[in-house]
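Dear support,

I submitted the protein below through the web form. The confirmation email said the job was done, but the results page showed an empty box. After a refresh the structure appeared. I'm attaching both so you can tell me whether what I see now is the final result or a partial one.
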Amino acid sequence: MTRAAEALRVSQSTLSEQVRELEGWLGQPLFERRSRQLHLTEAGRIAFEHAESIFATGRELLDRLRQTGKEKKQLRIGAVGPLSKNLQFDFIQPLLECGDTRVTVLAGGLTELVRLLQEHKLDLVLSNIPMRADQEHTIHNHLLGEAPVFLAGSTKIRPGRGKFPAWLRGVPLLLPTRQSHVRADFDQLLAGARIEPEIRAEVDDMALLRLLALSGQGLALVPSIVVERELQSPQLRTLIRVPGLAERFYAITMARRFGNPLIDEAVASFRQKLKSFAALSRRGKALQA
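What the results page shows now:
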């Protein structure tokens, strides 16, 4: 009670009186004293859950109304750390080209970013893995699309003999960490072919993986969108599109009563962008350099 009164800038006696009035109005005790401490009763927990929902809706309403009438609209985006910077750029570029939109991008871990989403501090989270369902919050995983996965490297790296994946024997590899589902699928492919990979590096940052590939340190296992710009120059080449592998991308949002209309615009625009990579995937043939 003391800390709550300090946060509300009222006296403890005033706050206690307000709680008693609320209990009288509800006809239920909200607190009970155990071991010299106050604990919520069952009615108190129910009231607390409803109060949380009410205040969350209030914050959401304020966020939306504060944008009404402003010259610039705002979209607050969270992006998981390992996510491709090319992908993030492609997502926000159409928003910036409008000229009347301000974009905020915050990088971090998925759990932390979703917490900020729940606190109405972000509008959406970009991720390459979906978020698990939450009993307390309605979380939506919007599939943006998928991009084919390639083994790419500089011209210094030469494949071995035989057909894929046999020619990977002895070839230095730059791979995502084992937390990546693409890495898990790739490991399964190699295990099925009884190939022991020569792993030069394991990296959870796509930008660093791309730089290592450009430096000639090995073949990098990357989604096409990670190296799309480099592939337009002689710096990098794709040796093969790995059959059966694709990286999926998601926009994670919360159910809102007052949603941000920019979300639908951004998602639709980015899905259109990813169609080119989906078309590449449908070719179903290895791309030789």
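Response: this is the final, complete result; the empty box was a page-load delay. Strands lie at 31-34, 37-40, 73-80, 101-108, 124-127, 139-153, 172-175, 198-202, 219-223, 237-254.
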